[in-house]
Amino acid sequence: MASLTAAPVVFSSLGVAPEPVHMRCDLADTFFRGALVFWLGGQVTPIVTDTTTEFAGVVAEHTVTTALNQFVLVYIKGIFLFANTNFTIANQGSLFYQTTAGEDDPSTLNVSAAGDSGACGRLVQCKTTAVDGFLDIGDRFDHSETA
Fold this sequence. Notes:
By secondary structure, the chain is mostly beta strands. It contains no helices and twelve strands. It has strands at 11-13, 21-24, 30-31, 36-40, 43-45, 55-59, 63-64, 71-75, 79-83, 95-97, 119-128, 132-136.
């Protein structure tokens, strides 16, 4: 399990930060600021359980929960700067997904949907190629046209 052990080094909201919302957690755990969280039974978890796991948002503040149903502040939209070696100029505009091994760590997001969770966001701009970039977590849908 490759869960975060500290908040990501690079985490900032671009422009005016959206208001976070309170979401109930599914277990006692540590939710690091900037970590990714996913839906599990109507609550949020830092664990990607399987390929049907859907992305919920980005943790707004470091929170340690001690029981089921405690609240975690989560951003459900916004553009965030994350460190990730997969954020390259060639991948700008691509949807990014989380692996079951990556779990809550945004540095392990990748462009492959096969065997991964639901989309976590679209890379809107690579800041420094293969280092970091801006991920729009509000844009998680494939906009391509089909015949």
